[in-house]
Amino acid sequence: MPWSNQGGGWKGNNGGPWGSPPPGGSGGGGGQPPDLEEILRKSQERIKNVMPGGGSVGGKGYILLILLLVVVWLLTGFYRVQPDEQGVVLRFGKYVEQTQPGLNYHLPWPVETALTPKVTRVNRIEVGMRGFEQSARSSRVQDVPEESLMLTGDENIVDVDFTVFWVINNAGDFLFNIQNPESTVKAVAESAMREVIGKNNLAPILTDRRTTEVAVQELMQATLDEYKAGISITQVQMQSVDPPSQVIDAFRDVQAARADQERLQNEAQTYANRVVPEARGEAARILEAANAYRDRTVAEARGQADRFSKVYEEYRKAPEVTRERMFLETMERIFGGTDKIIIDESAGGGNGVVPYLPLNELTRGGNKQ
Questions:
Q1: Is residue 247 helix, strand or coil?
Q2: C-alpha 220 chain-centroid distance
Q3: Do 238 and 312 reside in the same domain of the chain?
Q4: Is 146 within 8 Å of 228 (Cβ atoms)?
Q5: pLDDT grade for 269, boundaries at 50, 70 and 90
Q6: 232-241, 320-329, 331-340 — which one is most confidently predicted on average?
Q7: CA 226 from chain center: how many Å?
Q8: Which residue from 142, 169, 320, 342 could staple onto 354, CB 3.0 to 4.6 Å apart?
Q9: Do 212 and 194 fall into the same domain?
Q10: Domain of 288?
């Protein structure tokens, strides 16, 4: 069935290259298939009508057609980068440059192409749990034990569910340095959390979540920077930190016992803080009193010794007078506060009692009245 340019159409018994369609088949409800020769002829006539010269296509017409196609091809190089995107230009598949939001231009395909990943969108990765929306107002969270169960530094098992929020900070690194960004971020997050949990005891993990979150975020960022992933971790948020459900009752008992232990220790420390300073203060008071008594006794002894030395010096000058004065002072000190009866043995007649008027007694009696 050769093609005939002169007679037109297809030669052969079937009337075309596919033969006659079966009755009732496709092709317009049982009609003949479209005539390709007629289609080609009409296309040539349309091109002739468009080209200048009224149907005669010359060299200038072909040049204008080629220029028109070239202009249309060059215009396909314009592309727009949205405010939340960053443009990345590839030349034959190789990274060339990054472009900012707005209208930009690159050499048309297949020389250059442009990718526009969203760099301001906050992406979210869940580790240890999966959230499912049951309806518009309710959702369900499914725990994933193979991701959430971790071992602490004091050999306790803890169930940690957390969420990681991240954005793209370098579109070029993000597109070409990592193959699966979400899987990479998730793997790095789980590894960092296990490392931080494994270095700390259970108590601070349960009571101080913020410290753990900051440590995991810093470790994740350092790892991704080492990979040159072009990703910035904005936040790590721990959703729940609990012991496994199988041992949570025993864990609560242990926590209650530890709380009682800490309470008793605090009470004992409070008592010690109160008693020890009191004992130290009392000891200091006794020591100061002893020192004062010592200083007073020593001072009195020195004073008595000095007084005796002075008396002895006077005694050496007039021994008789000094002995008599000392005798009289001693007798005055002894009999000064006692009741006295004076007897004069040299008095004649009577019993020798010397009458005297006790003025001090009269004064004492007058005061009583």
A1: helix
A2: 13
A3: no
A4: no
A5: very high
A6: 232-241
A7: 22
A8: 342
A9: yes
A10: 257-362
C-alpha span between 267 and 275 (Å, rounded) = 12
Q: How confident is the model at residue 7 (pLDDT cuts 50, 70, 90)?
A: very low
- In this structure, is residue 345 part of a structural domain? yes
| In a domain? residue 12 | no
**Domain presence at residue 6:** no
Q: What is the per-residue burial (b if ≥16 Cβ within 10 Å, else e) of 53-71? A: eeeeeeeebeeeeeeeeee
- 99 closest CA partner among 121, 80, 77: 80
Count of positions (residues) in the chain: 369
- Give, as one character, the DSSP assignment of residue 3: B
Q: Which residues pair with 103 in a beta bridge?
A: 80
Are residue 132 and residue 233 in the same domain, yes or no? yes
Distances (CA, A) of 214 to 161, 229, 272: 15, 20, 38
Global pTM value = 0.47
Supply φ then ψ for residue 343, to 5 degrees: -120, 125
For residue 59, give both structure tokens. Answer: 């060299």
Cα 21–24–26 angle (5° rounding)?
Answer: 60
The tokens describing 117, both together, are 């990943």
Q: What is the mean pLDDT of the chain?
A: 76
Choose among 87, 84, 83: nearest CA to 96. Answer: 87
133 and 209 inside one domain: yes
Place of tokens 């939001």: 101
Helices (H), the chain: 36-50, 59-75, 145-148, 171-176, 181-199, 202-207, 209-227, 248-317, 319-335, 359-368
- Domain identity same for 162 and 212: yes
For the record, the structure tokens of 259 come out as 């709380």
Torsion from C-alpha of 279, 280, 281, 282, nearest 10 degrees: 50
Same domain flag for 79 and 142: no
The residue from 185, 208, 242 where one domain ends is 242
The three-state secondary structure class of 72 is helix
- Structure-token match 């289609």, residue found: 39
Question: Which of 234, 197, 203 is CA-nearest to residue 215?
Answer: 197
CATH code of the domain covering residue 196: 3.30.479.30
**Are 301 and 238 in the same domain?**
no
User: What phi and psi, each to the nearest 5 degrees, are found at residue 125?
Assistant: -125, 130
Match 């040539």 to its residue by tokens.
44
